[in-house]
Amino acid sequence: MSVELTINKEIRPGKVTWRSPSNIALIKYWGKHGNQLPRNPSLSFTLTNAYTETTVLYKMRETPGEDVSLAFKFEGQDNRSFEERLKSFLNKRAVELPFIRQLDLEVFSRNSFPHSAGIASSASAMSALALCLCTIEDQLFGTLKDDSDFEQKASTLARLGSGSASRSIYSYAAIWGKTGLVNGASDDYAVPFGQNLHESFKTYQDAILIVDQDPKKVSSSQGHKLMENHPFANVRYEEARRHLNELGNVMKTGDLSRFNTLVEMEAMQLHALMMCSSPGYILMRPDTLKIIELIKEFRKTTSAPVCYTLDAGPNVHLLYPLAEKAKVTAFIQQVLSPYCHQGKWIDDMVGEGPIQVD
Ligand code: PMV
């Protein structure tokens, strides 16, 4: 039964809140086409402590207009530039959510991590908003009662806001993009991968070492665009597919040594692509390299199965099994933190995924 998603009766005002985490890609999405579709499949860990909490208040609008009716506050303050971006995103969502222009929306959003920590917040922010919109659809029309329908639509909407956000919908780990590795994988939305993980990965730790918190000189959207005429684009997309197939299996069996090799290769390939784009650019800082060298040295001297990865920025994610927590924390405090901006790092871990708060 298909339901027309327009409101044609009185509705009661409502309120919905979701808390949604960031994620860290192990196989990187870098390069897109069409309406935010990936050139290669990607795989990520869903995090816990770095999250966005978003509340949406909605009520029937007196007179529907061309534009969505939106008031937005970020961390309790007006923020015109975020509000404009959000408005433009929501206006386009009238395709998937035809009722959106029939509502007055008030959106309140906050991050658990400092806004200026240099942590990409688009994955947590867009996934939290997408989950709120799906809950509103379900409250109004009862169309998303089935969990997998709900998650699929939330992941699709999140993807349209920011590709990597599609993966934050699921606990532990997710795959976005067509691959034979899991049933139902799609370029339109992410699918869960947590059910396939070796137990050790469900408690994996991610120390986010903040090297630089200034806004990036080249944004991710510019970076994706530079892949369009990139000399190594096709080789890269093949490499990503090959890495994903292997890493997917390694994450089922728990082979940490191969996990570390593949994850570090992905981080290096991502930044190598940036360096040989036209024009080329470097997002790593001298302290990023220093930290990477120190992590490799620590692994060699202690045999602790730690590894690093990078997103599109200078900060380093140090990934390690929970059993190594005491040793790694001491290593960060004594050796790595002097290379972090004001000694800052975020103690994060793989987690359960988004939660509805109210
Ligand atoms: O979702 P975007 O457009 O911000 O791109 C994210 C790109 C990387 O973080 C570098 C990789 C990824 O898969 O998350």
In short:
By secondary structure, the chain is of the alpha+beta class.
Features:
single chain; 358 residues; Ribosomal Protein S5, domain 2; Alpha-Beta Plaits; 9 helices; 14 strands; binds (3R)-3-hydroxy-3-methyl-5-(phosphonooxy)pentanoic acid
CATH architecture of the largest domain, by name, is 2-Layer Sandwich
Unique ligands: (3R)-3-hydroxy-3-methyl-5-(phosphonooxy)pentanoic acid
Q: Average pLDDT, to the nearest integer? A: 95
Order of SSEs? EEEEEEHEHHEEHEHHHHEEHEE
Give the overall silhouette: globular
What class do helices, strands and sheet pairing give?
Answer: alpha+beta
The profile of the biggest β sheet is:
8 strands, mixed
Distance between the termini: 29 Å
Name the poorly predicted regions: none
Strand percent estimate: 15-25%
Rg computed from alpha carbons, rounded to a whole number of angstroms: 20 Å
Query: How many structural domains?
Result: 2
CATH class of the largest domain: Alpha Beta
Number of strands: 14
Summed up, the helix count is 9
CATH topology of the largest domain: Ribosomal Protein S5, domain 2
Q: What percentage of residues falls in helices of 4 or more residues?
A: 25-40%
